[in-house]
Amino acid sequence: MLSSFGLCLVIATMTVFAVVASAQSSGDSVTGTLQVAKERYALKHAFAVMEADPFSNGEKENVIVVLSDVPVPQEMRKASNDWRIWAGEQAAAGAVHGLILTINPETKIWDSGHVLTKGGFMFYTESVMGDTPRNLRFEPSGAIGDHIAGKASMKEPMHGMSDDDGPWQIDAQFSTAVTRRPAVTGVLTGQTALDSAQFKAAKAFLEACHKKDVDAIREAIDPKSRDAMMQMFSGPQKAEMLDGFAQMAADTLGYTLVKITIRGDSADLEFKDSKPDSGSSQTLRVVQSGGDWKIAR
Fold first, then answer.
1. Looking at the chain, which terminus has fewer C-beta neighbours within 10 angstroms, N or C?
2. pLDDT > 90? residue 131
3. Where are the domains of the chain?
4. Among 12-16, 89-93, 234-238, where is mean pLDDT lowest?
């Protein structure tokens, strides 16, 4: 599940990014189709990345597989949010069609993901009880590690979140390398985390959002992400976006910083609501840029 911060970015970012047609990595292969309502799309490209399971407190990972009719650009085939934002932009522009699969590498179960539609990301999930047969079927070919291969199919179509999305169904065979996240180089907790440069960078962003200070928000963002993120605050929905980010910031500033996981020049900050039975949480990502830490998309 995306954090509220990440979800805002996926939904709100609507600019068109040029597709790099030669981006498919050697060794990747896909054959099959995605049917959405009356439209059928030939799936030709695959990209897989290992990501943290949002429900495991960082202790487990899932393999996220993207099957699409155009390739994820080479410069975005890495363990970051860049490929997700690209996919959301392209889907909203009608420039890419495909399916994102979330697969547990231990159980080899495919139980959720996103359909790339004209609305961007359409979330889907399947929950079954006991021995009830699954509709979402993943048949792996070999072990899941630095490579994943298998067949994704469905017993019957699933319906979208609205009638406009239409029922969808996939039948595809794929094989692709798995991109892994950089190794953990440090974990900060307690006062050490609160005194860290990573937390100060995240706090500067949150406080700027809470104040709806556009100039301060811009200054707190990594230059590589800055232009794309700031577009959200320059359009006709500027006031609405500022209100949304202000609320997100207010919530997060009231949470407890649980842990900072550093992976080289990037770090994930995990915040949790300390109120009993709340379960609310937020994760922010910062990167090192020119010696300083800045918020990243």
1. N
2. no
3. 4-179, 186-295
4. 12-16
Determine contact, residues 100/168, Cβ cutoff 8 Å: no
Q: Say if residue 224's pLDDT is above 60.
A: yes
Of 7-21, 190-204, 236-250, the range with the lowest mean pLDDT is: 7-21
The pLDDT value recorded for residue 138 is 98
CA distance 46 to 285: 26
Pinpoint the alpha helices (H) of 93-196: 190-194
- Name the fold adopted by 186-295: Nuclear Transport Factor 2; Chain: A, (3.10.450)
H or E element, residue 206: helix 197-211
Which helix (H) or strand (E) element contains residue 263?
strand 256-263
Enter the tokens of residue 112: 């959720």
Paired tokens of 133: 């047969």
- Among 112, 115, 114, smallest CA distance to 138 is for 112
Alpha carbon of 294 to those of 75, 216, 284, 288: distances in Å? 20, 12, 11, 6
Report angle CA 272, 278, 279 to the nearest 5 degrees. 55
Is the torsion defined by CA of 220, 223, 271, 237 positive or negative? Answer: positive
Nearest to 202 by CA among 257, 243, 239: 257
Q: Check: CB of residue 117 under 8 Å from CB of residue 160.
A: yes
d(Cα 232, Cα 18) in Å, to the nearest integer?
A: 19
Q: How confident is the model at residue 2 (pLDDT cuts 50, 70, 90)?
A: very low
Residue 134, CB-side half-sphere exposure with 13 Å CA sphere: 14
Q: What is the pLDDT of residue 162?
A: 58
Determine the pLDDT at residue 290.
Answer: 87
